[in-house]
Amino acid sequence: MEEPLYLNDCYLKEFEATVKEVNGRFVVLDQTAFYPEGGGQPSDQGLLKSAKGNFIVKFVKKISGAIQHEVDNEGLEAGDKIKGEVDWYRRYRLMRYHTAAHVVSGVVNSMTGALITGNQLGEDKSRVDFDLENFNPDILKEVENKSNDAIKKAIPVLIENMPREKAMEIPSVFKLKMMLPESLQTIRVVSIGDVDRQACGGTHLKNTSEIKRLTITKTENKGKNNRRLYFVLNE
After folding, report:
1. Three-state SS across 81-135?
2. Domain ranges of the chain
3. Main-chain phi, psi angles of 51, to 5 degrees
4. What values do phi and psi take at 183, rounded to 5?
5. CATH label, 3-86, candidates 1.10.287.3510, 2.40.30.130, 2.60.120.260, 3.60.110.10
6. Per-residue pLDDT for 166 more than 90?
7. What is the share, in percent, of the chain residues with pLDDT greater than 90?
8. 3-state DSSP helix/strand/coil percent for the chain, to nearest 5?
9. What pLDDT score was predicted for residue 177?
């Protein structure tokens, strides 16, 4: 099993690794800082540099338990040494949006008790779906204001790995409507002060101040008790 470096250091931009396996344009490394698509967060992109040249990482996904890096050309072989470089602009934008999504979902949950039914992060906008009957304009404005208040407070974002039994003792950890699989015995918990605390495998900022500011742009009705909220980040 390769080591997912992004879990312990979300700010890691470059790393060295050895190619373990190659299947056409899909490459598996012994360790990687590239985040694989999952949990509503798009995959990282970037470069794999080797003595054979540079290979553009177009897409990353965990397939059959291995983190597969799809590159633009064939040519790498098992045993090759590479230097990986993450597209930092893209990664950092997604980190800002992901941490902001936690702030928004924490605020909505504290106000309404609603659970998350889905989410999708982007570089220019993101959305979160909630198990909620209705969003009225007053609630939306309050969610936006409380979210920006939390951002301005510069709250540290803490990441810790917990045994499943310990994580299960924390009522707020599981805000997703769908519970995590029983096979997952170590739970990665992201905590943002008293705003949000939930299980998450994504990449995050060190401090809410890095989000800067967010604006809720619209909501949609996606069916019975399912409301979608869109937001953008302001520079």
Report:
1. EEEEEECHHHHHHHHHHHHHHHHHHHHHHHHHCCCEEEEECCCCCEEEEECCCCC
2. 3-86, 91-234
3. -65, -20
4. -70, -20
5. 2.40.30.130
6. no
7. 80
8. 25, 40, 35
9. 45
